[in-house]
Amino acid sequence: MSVSIDVNGAPKLVEADPATPLLWVLRDYLGMTGTKFGCGIAQCGACTVHVEGRPVRSCQYPLSAAVGQKITTIEGLSPDSSHPLQKVWVEMNVPQCGYCQSGMLMAAAALLKQSPHPSDDEIDLYINNICRCGTYPRVRAAIHRAADMLAQASHT
Amino acid sequence: MSGAADFSRRVFVVSSLAVGGALLMGLREEVHGAEAQVRPWDKPNPDGALEFTPWLSIAPDDIVTVRVTTPDIGNGVMTQAAAFVMEELGCSWDKIRPEYASTNRDYLNDGVYSKVAGIIGYFSGRSTGPERMKTYMQVAASARERLKSAAAQQWGVQSAEVIAQGGVLSHAASGRHMRFGEALPHAARVRLDKEPQPKDRSEWTFLGKKTPSKVQIPEIVNGAAVYGMDIRLPNMVYAALRQSPVQGGKLKAFDATAVKAMPGVLAVVAVRPEDNKPSDLKTPFPLGNSRGAHGVAVIAEHYWQARTALDALQIQWDDGPGAQWKSTAQMYQALHQAVERTGGNPEKSVGNVETAFKNNSTVVEATYLTPYCEQAPMEPLNGTALVDKDRVEVWHPTQHSQMAFLVASDESGVPPQNVHFHQTYVGGGFGRRVFGDDVRMVVAVAKQFPGRPVHVIWSREEATRQGRYRAAMASKLKACLGPDGLPAGLKARAAGGPGFSVSGLADTALMGVIPNIEVDSEVVPFHILSGPYRGPGYNSNAFMVETFLDECAHAAGIDPLEYRIKLYGKWGDIGWVKCLQEVKKKSGWGEPLPKGQGRGVAVANWGMRGAVDAGTTVATVAKVEVSRDGKLKILQLDVAFDTGRVMNEDAVRVELEGGTIFGLNMTLNEELTIHDGQVVEGNFDTYPMLRMVNVPKTIGVHFGGLSDAPRYNEIGEPPAGSVGPAVGNAIFAATGKRLRTTPFRKQDLSWT
After folding, report:
1. Strand partners, B53
2. Is pLDDT of B23 > 80?
3. Cβ separation of A132 and B654 shorter than 8 Å?
C-alpha cells in the first residue's frame, strides 16, 4: 500500500506497512538517516522529529498516524545549518559521539518555539533525551545561548 | 612498537585518480573551521593532489587531507590529529579535512599506518600519545619545508626566507606569494637534504593555545554524518539478529517456514561459530575475543520487516552450562565466598603484613561489590558487509579498525588484501566496540547472503543482553592503622568474574604509601562475557579503595580530605596532592552544611601502572543532599585532574564532564542482573540512564591540579573512577550510611 507523507515540506511517497514506525520509514524507505535509532521504546529520544511542530519520538509513531501531518526532521531544521541551535552546537563543542544529538536538537528546537526563554527547570522538564556521553551541561548552556541569539535576532 | 613513520622510504605520488574536487563534501561557508567529511573513511586523493606521505596530502585547492587511524568515538582524536598538522604545516584551519586511514593500504604497504603505536595504532584513543604527536608534527613540518623550498626555487630566493602561513607561501623582501596548491607541482620534485626538526613546545601557537571544536560537529548538527547505522548502499538488505539468550549457549532448532512467507523476508540464516574452519591468518594481536555467539538472523528488504519476522520466529536454544547461575544473588554469594578464601593469585606483596597487624591494633575491615555493567553506547551494535567469493567490503562503527579489518578477513576466509574496511562515525563506544565480535557477526550473517550488502542491526535489547560487560567483582579490604592514623598494613583480596582486573588496586599509589601490603585475587568462573568498559578494572577498584580509605579516615578521626593529603603526600607524584588541594579550594570543602547534606572526596589514577608521574590523576568532591525518606540529589561536583600537561583545554573539559557523568551513572544506576543464566535488563526502562534533570547544572572542572610533568596523558577514562566513591562518601557524611556496593539507587538511603 502506498501513502504520501509530508516531510520537510515535500510530499514523499512510501510503500510500507502502515504499522511501520515513522523512524524506519524515514531511515530505510526515504534514506533520511539523520533521525537515529537508539532504543525503539521511546525512552531515549534519539529519534525525535517534529509533527506539526511538536516533538514526537518517531520509533513509536506509526506511519499511519503520520499521514496528513507536517513532519520535520533534523535534515529540515534549517536548509543550511543556520538554526541558532545548530550554530551554538558547533561553537560550544556540544556533541561528543554525536549520535543522540539530532534528537537533542529537535527537542531543543521544539522547546524554544514553545518557550523562547526557557528556565533551567523548563529545560530539565522538556529535554529528557538520553546522552550516554554526558553532554547535558553543554546542551543546557547552548539552549540558553541560542535563546539569547533568537531574542537578539527578533529585536533587530 | 616502532616510533614515527618511516621517512627513508617516503615516495612522492601525484595522484592520477580523478574523483572530483576535494571540496565536494562537507564544506559549508558559515562554518569557519576544519571539517571532517560526511563519510569519513578513506578516499582516493583528489585529482592533482600531492601526497607528501600516506598521512598527509594537499590538493590544488589547498585542501589538506590528514589521515587518522584512531576511530573518533566522540573523544576528539580526529580534531587532535588535525591540530598537530596545523601547528607545523602553516595551513589554514578551515582547509583541513581529516579522514580515516585505510586498513587495506596499511596491510598492503607493510604497516605504513599501524607501525605508529603498534597494536593500538588503530584503536580509538590516546590522541595525544607521544608517537602520534611526533608522527603528525614531523610529516607536517616536512611538507611545509618542501613547499617552502618549491616556492624558493621558483623565485630564486633562499628557502629560509619563505614563510608558510595560512596556506600561503610568501617572500617578504620581494613581495611575492603563492598558495600551497600552486606550489604542489614543484613541491613534488623537492627532496630535502635533512628532515626539519618540529617546533619546540615554547614556539607553539596552536597546540595548547587554541581550543577548536571537534571537526565532525558541522556534519552532526544537520544529521549528515554517516554512522554505521546510516550506511545506505544500492541493493542493500537488512538483518535483525537474535543470539543465544544464555551466553555460551547453542542454537538447537528453529522453524522458518512461516516467517519466510512474511512481507519482505528474503532469508533466515543460522550462525554457528564452530562451523568455521580455523583460519591461518597471521595477525599482530590475537583475535580470540572476537569469537562469535550462536544466533539466527532474518534478512529482509527493510529493517522493520526483518525485525517483525524475527519476533515471530520460534527458536530453541541449548542453554549450556551458563544456566547453572540461577540468580544474581547466587553469583554475588559466590563472589563473597571467594573473598573469604585464602590462596589464589598473588598480585602484590610489600613488607610484612602479619607483623604490621601484630603491632597495630586499630583494624578497619570491609567488603565491597560492584556488578556487571553494560557500556550502552547510544548507537546499538550494527554493521554492513558485502561478501563476494573473493572480495569483502565492510562499513562499520568499530573502536579498532585494524581489529575489525582482520576479523572480517578471518570470518570470511577472504585474504586481507581483498578486504576493504570503511570506518564510519561511531555512536559511542566506551569499550564495547573494541573486540570485533560485532563485525564478526555481521560478516557471519552477510556471507550467507552474498552479492548484496547486508546491514545487520542489533535491537537495543539484543545489544544489552549480548554484551562484553564490565565484570562483576568483590573485594575484601583490611587495614591496620598506625599511630598517625594512616594504614600501616593492608590485606586486600579481590574476586570477580572472568575478565575482572585488579588495575586500580594492585598498581595504584596506595601500594607505594603503605609499608606492608598483600594483595591476592581469584577468578570465579561465571559464564558472562566481559570486555573493556570505560576505565577497565579501575572503575570498580577506585570505588572500593576510595570508599575504604574514607572508612579508615573515619576510624582515625581525621578529615577525609586531609587524610588523603597526608597519605598521598608520601607518594612521589605531586599531582595527587595538587589535585586534592585544588578540589579542597574550589568545592568549599569544610564550609558548614545543613542537615541531610554532605561532601565527599575521592582521588584515583588511571593508567599509572605503579609508576610515579604517569597516568591521569583525578580528584572529585561531591556535594549531595539526601532527604529523610532517602531521595538523593547531587548538588555540586568539582573535579581536578593531572594529565601532566594539556593540549586542548576545551577537549579535556568535555571529557571530564562526560566521564564524570558516565561514572555517576555507573555508580547510581547500573546493574545487570541474571536469571537462569540470562541477562534480565534489555533497554533503558530497566537499565536507566541519568538525564538532564539528574545532573548538576555545571560540573566544576578545575585546572589547578596539573603538575606540568612532561606528558599529555589521556582523559576519557580517568574521571569515571573518582566520582562514584566521592558521592558515596558524601552520602556517608550526610546520613551516616556507608555504601559498599553499587548501584546506589537500589539501596535504602533514608535516615532519621
Report:
1. B56
2. no
3. no
Task: Name residues whose C-beta falls within 8 Å of residue B593's C-beta, 6 or more positions apart in sequence.
Answer: B599, B623, B734
Binary contact (A41, B224; C-beta < 8 A):
no
Q: Which residue of A has its CA nearest to B683?
A: A39
Check if A89 contacts B (Cβ < 8 Å).
yes
Contact B734, B597 (CB under 8 A): yes
A134, B659: Cβ pair inside 8 Å?
yes
Instruction: For the full predicted model, state whether its pTM sits above 0.90.
Output: yes
For chains A and B, CB pairs below 8 A equal 196
Q: Which three cell numbers stand for residue B419?
A: 578486504
Other Cβ atoms within 10 Å of B288 Cβ, number: 7
Q: If residue A57 lies in a helix (H) or strand (E), which one and from where to where? A: strand A54-57
Amino acid at B332: Y
Helix (H/G/I), strand (E/B), else coil: B3: coil
Interface contact flag, A125 B693, Cβ < 8 Å: yes
Using only the alpha carbons of chain A, give its radius of gyration: 15
Contacts of A85 in chain B (CB under 8 A): 221
* Residue A79 touches partner B, C-beta closer than 8 Å: no
Mean pLDDT of chain B: 94
For residues A78 and B510, what is the distance between their CA atoms, to the nearest angstrom?
Answer: 54
Give B447's DSSP letter.
T
| Number of neighbours of residue B354 by Cβ within 10 angstroms | 12
On whether any CB of chain B is under 8 Å from the CB of A13, the answer is: no
Residues 6 or more apart in contact with residue A154 via CB below 8 angstroms: none
Q: What is the pLDDT of residues B507-565, one digit of tens each?
A: 999 999 999 999 999 999 999 999 999 999 999 999 999 999 999 999 999 999 999 99
- What's the alpha-carbon Rg for chain B, to the nearest Å? 28
Return the SS3 of B535.
coil
